[in-house]
Write a structure and sequence with these properties.
This protein is an alpha+beta fold and 288 residues long. The chain has twelve helices and five strands. It comes from Actinocatenispora rupis.
């Protein structure tokens, strides 16, 4: 499913309009409303465009709004920075303050950095959440990625469709919701990425949870946060994560985990010892 820019732009504008109340944008509530959110007339007034223009945008009638109009709509609808970028991507009007992604030829240097970050669990993802590299500690914490087929080394696919991950996140609803919102931003920013479109289609077909959250059209890029996990051997572990993007390759994401508290640090230390021992055993087995 490639990105239908006009259709998705229409749906996104409607969804955001319906989530706002007049009070949130400083407008009086004059009459009882039969539908939630702002009226098109109110959005048009706030954005300084005609009502007919808003109607045609919401009906996907072939308009390509200018950057000025998009900025006005973003302000009128109180869009977050991530939602603003999403709006511009859908309209094929990427703002100048966002770097233009390029196909990566530099994954290997960052992959070496992943290994150098031990004993901190770390992994390298692309914009599709494909897992390109990982260290022993991350494999020990999550799953032994080396035994998975390459096509299944995708963090969102694992979270949603791999049975062993269904109890892994103690706050599953939030983690999945944030992951879907992050993927939606990448989807709009890469409208010609057929592999990404196929991933979205597979997840929509295979996970009712994903399909429901995808239709909510939440957009958010997650650069840092906290995740409470449940390791199958060491029990509850809470990690804080940081996501770093190389300047020369903004489509790559270096994800680094740290323990959020002392008990989690003890668990991560034990996981790291086990993972390093497993790695060393494999090397001996192949005569390295």
């Amino acid at each position: 499913m490639s990105v239908d820019g006009a259709g998705e732009l229409a749906a996104f504008l409607r969804a955001r309009r319906e989530r706002l109340t007049p009070a949130e944008v400083g407008l009086p509530v004059r009459t009882r409303r039969r539908t939630p959110g702002l009226r098109r007339e109110e959005v048009a007034e706030l954005a300084g465009v005609s009502v007919d223009y808003v109607v045609r945008l919401e009906q996907a009638r072939g308009l390509r709004p200018s950057t000025d109009v998009l900025e006005a709509l973003a302000r009128a609808l109180r869009l977050s920075p991530d939602e603003r970028l999403y709006l511009f991507d859908l309209a094929r009007q990427r703002p100048a303050d966002r770097p233009v992604p390029v196909e990566s030829a530099a994954a290997e240097p960052v992959s070496r950095l992943v290994r150098d970050l031990s004993p901190l669990p770390a992994m390298l993802l692309n914009h599709r959440f494909d897992i390109l590299a990982w260290n022993a500690e991350m494999a020990g914490l999550m799953v032994d990625f080396a035994v998975l087929p390459p096509v299944r080394r995708n963090s969102l696919w694992l979270c949603l469709l791999a049975p062993e991950f269904h109890g892994f996140y103690r706050d599953r609803e939030r983690v999945i919701r944030e992951g879907v919102a992050d993927l939606r931003a990448a989807w709009a920013g890469h409208p010609d990425d057929t592999a990404l479109a196929e991933l979205v289609a597979e997840l929509r077909a295979g996970s009712a949870e994903f399909a429901r959250l995808w239709e909510e059209r939440d957009v958010r890029v997650n650069g840092r946060g906290r995740k409470p996990l449940r390791h199958p051997r060491y029990g509850p572990v809470t990690i804080e994560f940081e996501v770093l993007c190389p300047l020369q390759d903004p489509d790559l994401r270096l994800v680094i985990y740290r323990a959020a508290d002392e008990p989690s640090q003890v668990a991560l230390d034990a996981i790291a010892r086990d993972a390093v021992a497993l790695d060393a055993g494999r090397l001996r087995a192949v005569g390295v």
